[in-house]
Write a structure and sequence with these properties.
This protein has two domains: 73 residues, Arc Repressor Mutant, subunit A (Orthogonal Bundle), CATH 1.10.10.10; 160 residues, 3-Layer(aba) Sandwich (Rossmann fold). The longest helix is centred in the middle third of the chain and has 22 residues. The relative contact order is 0.11. The protein is of the alpha/beta class. Helix 9 links the parallel strand 1 and strand 2. Strands 2-1-3-4-5 form a five-stranded parallel beta sheet, sandwiched between helices. The protein is 55% helix and 8% strand.
Length: 285
């Protein structure tokens, strides 16, 4: 995951007050920061070197020098990666304006996935899934639809998993997981209570936890061994899951593609299942 200004903006609400100071200074004075050392940034932002170091770790880089390299690369690209404001649909009554606005907003936010999604975490997720004995998929509401999508994709390449909207049954499944099993928890907010409880039961039983939530600190992400992040693109109390749902599906598609590439018979299994589903014998008497 390459650090850029958008990622810093995404995690800003989840930083401590001392970490926010250098983060805000970086956002507002990016070019200047690429020429500063850690002591100078701490002084100019009214923070401390230790706060800058903690910020770097939360951004996924080991040192401030590495952060500066990432910022310099973004400046050299000359791209505007800033996030657009969250849509207020209550103000949009003109259909002619609504169509391009929703389309543009969605495309922009899907592009932002690459700024917060870690390639290293994706690779860890693929390896864990390949080695797992059992996989429990967890999600409710719109996130449950994402879990169902992942389940049918995994079946296509010969990987069996469990998903149910019955949360009591999901808790039962979680209690039977062991080491080398996976609990894959999906929640945009990362704070859905029942999903958190199922995830915790799974972790207590030794399962590897993979989470798909919005970027930043949340209760489900804290339980995770492998974190897959999407942009913080919608308010929690939103009209419905819109671009956040699409972003989750994008991550699932990336993960699925990686699994196909890793499995020797991945393409053959896809072809076999496609032929079976589209066979006329299953639809004609």
């Amino acid at each position: 995951m390459q650090v850029n200004i958008n990622l810093i903006k995404q995690i800003l609400p989840n930083l401590s007050n001392s970490e926010k100071k250098p983060a805000i200074y970086i956002v507002e004075h990016t070019e200047e920061v690429t020429k500063l050392n850690i002591l100078e940034l701490a002084e100019k932002s009214g923070s401390s070197p230790s706060a800058v170091s903690r910020l770097c770790k939360k951004l996924g880089v080991a040192k401030f020098s590495e952060l500066k390299v990432n910022l310099a690369m973004e400046l050299s690209d000359g791209e505007d990666t800033s996030n657009k404001s969250i849509l207020n649909l209550a103000l949009l009554k003109d259909t002619e304006k609504l169509i391009p606005l929703i389309t543009s907003f969605t495309c922009t936010n899907v592009t932002l996935v690459q700024s917060v999604l870690s390639a290293k975490m994706l690779e860890k997720a693929v390896t864990a899934i390949e080695k797992s004995n059992a996989i429990l998929l967890v999600g409710i509401g719109a996130s449950g639809l994402i879990a169902q999508d992942l389940q049918q994709k995994l079946i296509r390449i010969g990987i069996r998993s469990q998903f149910t909207y019955d949360t009591d049954l999901a808790l039962v499944n979680a209690s039977t997981l062991h080491e080398n099993d996976i609990c894959f928890a999906i929640s945009y907010s990362g704070d859905t209570k029942i999903v958190k409880n199922i995830t915790k039961v799974s972790k207590d039983n030794g399962a590897t936890i993979i989470t798909l939530t919005k970027v930043g600190d949340n209760s489900i992400r804290k339980l995770s061994d492998i974190t897959l992040d999407i942009p913080d693109s919608e308010p929690i109390y939103r009209q419905s899951a819109g671009v956040s749902r699409i972003n989750q599906l994008v991550v699932i598609d990336i993960l699925f593609t990686m699994l196909i590439a890793k499995r020797e018979n991945g393409i053959d299994l896809l072809s076999k299942t496609w032929k079976e589903v589209h066979s006329k014998k299953n639809y004609l008497d």
